[in-house]
């Protein structure tokens, strides 16, 4: 004798019965629940065996609840409604930690966070960290926005889109008068590089074709202040142009520069429905 036959009723039994009774169709209910019709029929039959009474009349063209089934349906609807209210209350207390190193992409980030919070009731905590990839691997954030190529095999990578690059220099730099620069000119200029989360550095050119003079920094603040101090030029995704990041720098269009990829990274072993919904919302925002 099965657990169900001994009177054990599970949530899946209630959901199955409610869907069939409401839609008056096993076919439509199976589609709604994303299960096969035979599996749905077995689940409803298990419930009827457990209760010892037929709940659905299958003799007519359309499925209908029996008198006992109609009475039971009213209780099931109240139970499922109360359960959904409880789930909503818990979801409103849930949160997901989104890590980033500098300047979240716009308008993607704002649209994604707003849509996700509105549709799920879950709060997104924005966590600024110098090394977003390491923050994911160490469990300090659930998911992170990372620019550039991700070579680590310890994380799962979902590519979102590409950003264009621009050059940035101090307002007093001789290059500030230029209307544009060519990517091929960059190796001949002192280049300020963010070695932790920057998108452009000696690694951006093949072999030894990169810049001869490199000024290394370890985070975005050090990088932008070094550029503003005219220690060298920088190359950054064009999101910076729209964000007015520093009054002492000027942006210069950069011709021929390769695009910069933007990706979400998270631990592949994470079994988190909230994280999965956030990734789906993030990818959906790129298509919107």
TrEMBL record:
Keyword Signal: no
Domain of life: Bacteria
Key word Kinase present: no
Domain spans labelled HTH lysR-type: 9-66
Matching CDD domains: PBP2_LTTR_substrate
Record keywords: Activator, DNA-binding, Transcription, Transcription regulation
Family note: Belongs to the LysR transcriptional regulatory family.
Protein's name according to its UniProt entry: LysR family transcriptional regulator
Protein species of origin: Mycobacterium paragordonae
């Amino acid at each position: 004798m099965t657990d169900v036959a001994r009177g054990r009723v599970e949530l899946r039994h209630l959901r199955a019965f409610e869907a069939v009774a409401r839609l008056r169709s096993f076919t439509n209910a199976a589609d709604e629940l994303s299960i096969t019709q035979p599996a749905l029929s077995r689940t409803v039959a298990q419930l009827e065996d457990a209760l010892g009474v037929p709940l659905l009349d299958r003799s007519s063209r359309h499925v209908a609840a029996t008198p006992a089934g109609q009475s039971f349906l009213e209780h099931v609807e109240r139970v499922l409604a109360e359960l959904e209210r409880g789930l909503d209350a818990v979801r409103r207390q849930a949160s997901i930690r989104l890590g980033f190193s500098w300047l979240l992409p716009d308008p993607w980030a704002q649209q994604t966070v707003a849509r996700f919070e509105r549709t799920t009731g879950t709060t997104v905590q924005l966590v600024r960290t110098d090394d977003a990839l390491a923050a994911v691997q160490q469990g300090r954030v659930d998911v992170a926005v990372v620019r550039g190529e991700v070579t680590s095999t310890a994380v799962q990578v979902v590519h979102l889109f590409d950003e264009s690059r621009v050059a940035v220099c101090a307002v007093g730099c001789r290059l500030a008068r230029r209307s544009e620069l060519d990517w091929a000119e960059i190796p001949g200029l002192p280049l300020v590089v963010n070695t932790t989360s920057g998108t452009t550095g000696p690694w951006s050119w093949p072999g030894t074709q990169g810049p001869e003079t490199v000024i290394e920094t370890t985070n975005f603040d050090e990088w932008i202040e070094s550029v503003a101090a005219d220690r060298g030029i920088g190359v950054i995704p064009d999101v910076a142009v729209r964000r007015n990041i520093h009054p002492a720098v000027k942006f210069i269009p950069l011709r021929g520069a390769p695009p910069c990829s933007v990706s979400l990274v998270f631990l592949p072993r994470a079994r988190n429905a909230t994280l999965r919904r956030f990734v789906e919302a993030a990818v959906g925002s790129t298509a919107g």
